[in-house]
Write a structure and sequence with these properties.
The protein is built from four helices and six strands; from the N terminus they run E-E-H-H-E-H-E-E-H-E. The protein is α/β, with parallel strands linked by helices. Helix 2 (69-84) crosses helix 3. Strand 3, helix 3 and strand 4 form a beta-alpha-beta unit. Helices cover 31% and strands 16% of the residues. The strands form two sheets. A four-stranded parallel β-sheet has the order 3-4-5-6, covered by helices on one side.
């Protein structure tokens, strides 16, 4: 971890080019609400690209909010029927791995189709704990597959209270599982 040699004395503002001193090399750091950023808030091309990516991320999170675990179950049923109809697909149990938003979806699929899944893996899965009736953590007791859940200990998308709620639910099940925290790792640590 990088630590400053001395206290940083940086002016922070919410306005562009808000320099307190009009001197050569003056710097001003601007604080922006990440939910309101657009690429037009930036001057340099690379910064505009990052601003655009943040705007796309906002769009992605909006789309994520429209997906329910019930819909995931319906889609999984269609996928299973499709795979069952393929002569090249070996008959038997499936294994599935989900990253990020698909981590909970893998567990939901294994819970909704327990006779079809033999293994389910979630890596930095979010959101596992929601206030919805079909929250993934509430379905863990329906899974018969072996499960592995790996989280970054510093993942800001997975608050400790969510890990605690998931771990508490897992302890009430007969599920064979491992929940592992990767210390020093944030979101997306496997990539």
């Amino acid at each position: 971890i990088v630590k400053p040699l001395e206290e940083l004395k940086i002016e922070v503002s919410t306005k562009k080019f808000d320099f307190k001193k009009k001197t050569e090399g003056a710097q001003s750091f601007r604080w922006l609400d990440v939910t309101k950023i657009s690429e037009n808030d930036f001057t340099f091309i690379i910064d505009r690209r990052v601003g655009g990516m943040i705007a796309e991320q906002k769009k992605m999170f909006g789309l994520m909010a429209t997906i329910s675990n019930t819909k995931i179950g319906e889609d999984t049923e269609g996928l299973i029927k499709f795979l069952d109809a393929q002569p090249e697909v070996k008959k038997g149990l499936f294994g599935a791995i989900g990253y990020c938003m698909s981590g909970p979806y893998v567990m939901v699929a294994a819970a909704m189709y327990p006779d079809r899944f033999g293994a389910a893996v979630s890596l930095h899965g979010v959101p596992f704990v929601t206030d919805q009736a079909d929250s993934a953590h509430l379905m863990m007791d329906k899974i018969r597959a072996e499960a592995y859940l790996g989280f970054g200990a510093t993942d800001v998308l997975t608050p400790q209270k969510d890990i605690d709620a998931l771990a508490a639910k897992l302890k009430t099940t007969q599920l064979k599982y491992e929940l592992e925290m990767y210390h020093g790792c944030g979101h997306g640590f496997v990539f």
